[in-house]
Each structure stands twice: as structure tokens, then as C-alpha cells.
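Q: Sequence in, structure out?
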Amino acid sequence: MSNGYIKEGVLFNTSSNLMKLDKDELLYLIEDIKNIRGRHTELVSIYVPAGHNINEIKDMVGKEISTAENIKSKTTRNNVIAALSKISNALKFYSTTPKNGLVIFAGNVSQKEGEQNIKIWEIEPPEPINIKLYRCDQTFILGPLEEILESKEIYGLISLDRQEAGIGFLKGKRIEVVKRIESLVPGKTAKGGQSAARFMRVREGLLNAYLKELGENVKNIFNNIELQGILIGGPGPLKQEFYEGNYLPENLKRKVIGIVDTGYAGEPGLKELVERAEEYLKESEYLKEKKIVDEFFKLLNKDEKMVVYGFSQTLSALEQGAIDKLLISGKADFKGFKCLCNDCKNEFIELMRKEENKKVKCKVCDSENVSCDEVHYIKLLKERAKLFGTEVYIISDETIEGMQFKMFSGIGGVLRYKI
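A: Exactly. Output:
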């Protein structure tokens, strides 16, 4: 347990700790802090590249504290100096830069005018960083960390019919719509007294121009992106004509892994395309998430005793080693604590809603003489699950199934046996 003081059964840290985060944990830490706003340029972001001399950073922070004395606004000056001083104290614990580099955020997170609550985050990213940066701003600088989170699993998506087309990507679990194109191709009935033959020539010319425009946009959007494959969908035979014609460059045509029938085109067609392309996306993050959530809800309806959900029920089943697959909503409003009973020395974990500040009691002796360190709930649950050989699935809200799971409970599991 780290040093701190107890309030309402929860330990509030007074020292800094390095967080070695995987991508899931980093994603949801960013979600937690990206909306923090300083009243002025008083939020401090520091990026230290992997292998960089940490003593140089310590010296730089010391100089910045001296420089901050010249800030005219008293409030801003006090907040910047307090943030930098907290960083300086934290850096005393580092003799070298962590293996993947070091990212530090610090600043006044209080939303009350005139109140100071300086908080610090010390992060070792899941991959090495090569950027060196120091910045005081109204927000924390998150771009370099967000680049690490960009999914390497990207599929190109094209959905078309004679009226419209949509171009986008499946990036990990997220469908991203990039462009929508409307067609000028008229219906099959001639208007204005045109002969049938002339009308057909005009119509075919407009259709060819529309498909050429689509192909040109696809080339511009997809080129220079490492794609796992391209999926083409839509109602009717036009999608096949687009693929077989001279509308796509050969390098992109070779990446087409499936042509799928859908009921819609354009933006809604892109989403339907992903839903119907299961045979081509078996190894995708999107489908893996969809399958595990489907399994959970099917078992819930078929044999409720083979699943568990809710805070206390899930934690209890986890500690019994009864959970085979643990599902955790990545954007749930949870907070987690690793706790120690000072009376019976029992160690246990606790989850609660973010807005809660309830007293924590020992799960063995019911004592309130408990010390707790706050740990990100995903990291906390992953650590516990590892002890029991439990698979952990972080469920996004990018899929319909993921959103349903979040609204249902946000935490649950598929059991190894009935309990």
C-alpha cells in the first residue's frame, strides 16, 4: 500500500506512482482525462523519449519552475508552479527513463474557482515513444498517445447502389465513415420526350461517370494505407460491375476479399456490410467482440446460472475462480480499489460507481479499518483474472452489442460451472 490518508474508507494518494499501461488501460485513461480543462495555460504535459537522459528532464523542470515565477496571473502562476513542483518530486524516484519512455501530466483539476487540486499521472506507454515535449496548455497533450492506440487492423469498406455510395474503414472495433457520394443517374423511365435509345446512352454515361468518380475517391482514400482487405457491398449487381470494371486500380482490386449483398448502400450500407461479412472478418476485433457478447446474452436467456453480472456477483465469482470469460465495458463509470484490512490483513478488491464515496469494509472480518489504493478498474480486474486463468474481454461501445452490454451491467462473465 502506498502512503496516504483515509477518508470514508478510501485512501487518497499523496505520492506518485508509475502506471505501466497496456493499450486497453491507456485508452480508458485518455477517456478519463481528455475533457479536463484548465482556466488558463496551466496543465502541464511532458513526454520523455525511450532511452533519454532523465537527469536532463529533471534539470529542465527545475528551470521551468523558476521561469513560471514570471507569470503575471497569480492563479495561473500558482497552479503551474504547483504542477511542476509535483512533477519535480515525482522525478526524484527515477534514476533512468522507463523502457518505453515516460509521459507525465499534471495540473489543477478542480472545477471550483479559486480551489486548487493538483493531480499527476505518470505513464509508461505500451510502446516506445520517440517524441520529446514540454507544454503548458488548457488541455493535456494526448495526440502522441492516441497515435499508439490507432488500430493496425484496418479494412476498407465500399457500399454502393445507383443512387449513392459510401466509403469508409473498419478500424479495430470502430466503423469510420469517410465519404458519401451521390449519383446523378436517373431512374429507368425516360423523361422529356427522349427516345429510349438516347435516354439509355445518357443514363449509361452518367452511371459510368459515377463509378469512375467512386473509383477515384476510393483510390485517394485507400492508397498509402496498410489494409487487411477491402469489402464491397450493396443491393443488386452494380457492386460486381464496379469490381470487375476498370474503376479500381489493380493494387486495390487485389485487396478485395469479399463482395457482399446488403439491403442498403451509402453510410447505412457500410454498417450492414460489416454485419454481413462475417465469413471474411473471422479474425477481426469487431467480430470477436460481437461473438463474446452474443454468447453472454444467449446464455443469459438459455441458462442464467451459467453467467454472472453486477459488481458484487461478478467479483465474488472471480475470486472463486468460477469465471471462464470476464467481460468488462471499457467506458463504464466504474472506479476500482486494491484494499488491505489493517486488522486481519486480508487483501481484496473493490468496485464502485465513479460518483460513489462509500465506506469500504473488509470482506472477511467486516472491519472498516481498511486502506485502499485506487487502481484503474480494467487494470485491477485484469490482474485478478490472471490469477485464475480467466480470459478478459474489454467491450467497447462501438458495436450495437457492446452498447447493449454497457447499458445492461458493464461487467459480467461466462462461468466455468454453476455457482
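The chain has three domains: 4-149, 154-282, 287-415.
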